[in-house]
Fold this sequence. Notes:
- The chain is mainly alpha-helical.
- Helices cover about 55% and strands about 10% of the residues.
- Strands 2-3-4 form a three-stranded antiparallel beta sheet. A two-stranded parallel ribbon has the order 1-5.
Amino acid sequence: xxxxxxxxxxxxxDDRFHRVNEEASGTGLALLIFGGFLPALIFASxxxxxxxxAHCNYIFRHPPVPQSSVARLSKYIFIVMLISGFPxxxxxxxxxxxxxxxxxxxLNIATNIIKISPMGVAISMGIxxxxxxxxxxxxxxxxxxxxxxxxxxxxxxxxxxxxxIKNNTNEGNxxxxxxxxxx
Length: 183
């Protein structure tokens, strides 16, 4: 029998989990009205990821599927690209800061190349950034797909649909329970 790739934090069960089926409290609607669309969307997303252990009935968030090392590397490259774009934004919005760096010899070479052909440099930089983004996105997608495929072959990935759990303690409270005869 396949087990899940995660365990219950309370009883360490990895056999059976169910999606939580709760009555709506109206909190999502209140968040939408008073907080806006984004907080309501985040609240709804958090509620849908909740699962319940079939053994101890503990409710917790469904842990995310682990990432592959290539996906993590792609994420870090993307973050470095965003961080490296920050100084470019600062220097373009405040040109006085750029004048302080005129004495660096490597920057003088780059500045001369840009002065010769600014449009060519801009197009080349755009193509390079686009190419890097396409490569890291493709590497992330392929490696994540392969890892999830391997995980699905070995483990259960998502919890079972809501099922009726038969508890001996609740049989007497059932609407369908037989009533004692009054003889």
